[in-house]
Amino acid sequence: MACPEHKANNFIKFISVLVAVVLIVLGVLKFYFTKDIPILVGIWTVYWIIFGLLLILVELNVKLVKEYFGFMVEYCGKGMFVIFCGTLMIDSFVDPHIVHESIVGLLIIFAGFLIIIVGYSAMPSQNFPPPPVPV
């Protein structure tokens, strides 16, 4: 039987890779289907792709990426980064015709909070000693 930390870690890796794939796919599709993309929106879209690739590299345990982005090793850091990526996608206030990106952005923000909550709920408590093992 797997321990809760192992299950939580697998779940968080799955959510992180899913968010990364969504960021990359939506970024590529936005460049492909948008004819006259404004400069600022184009920069945001490049950030989606770069951040998606960064999330995948962190999950693949690339040493160089973990060295420079060490905050993404912890649950809170990774969750806050995913929340930040979700906020980049909310641009319906800029262009009210693009609502689907804002909905995906809100789902990514929810995934970031989920990473934080699941990560810290599966960690062993530091205040209480572990239960005694029956002999």
UniProtKB/TrEMBL annotation:
Any one cellular-component term (Gene Ontology): membrane
Transmembrane segments: 12-33, 39-57, 69-90, 102-122
InterPro entries from the UniProt entry: Golgi_TVP15 (IPR013714)
Keywords, sorted A to Z: Membrane, Transmembrane, Transmembrane helix
Coiled coil location: none
Entry membrane topology: Multi-pass membrane protein
Family annotation (Pfam families): COPI_assoc
Lineage: superkingdom: Eukaryota
Main location per the UniProt record: membrane
Location of the protein in the cell: Membrane
Record-given protein name: COPI associated protein
Organism: Paramecium octaurelia
The organism's taxonomic lineage, starting at the top: Eukaryota, Sar, Alveolata, Ciliophora, Intramacronucleata
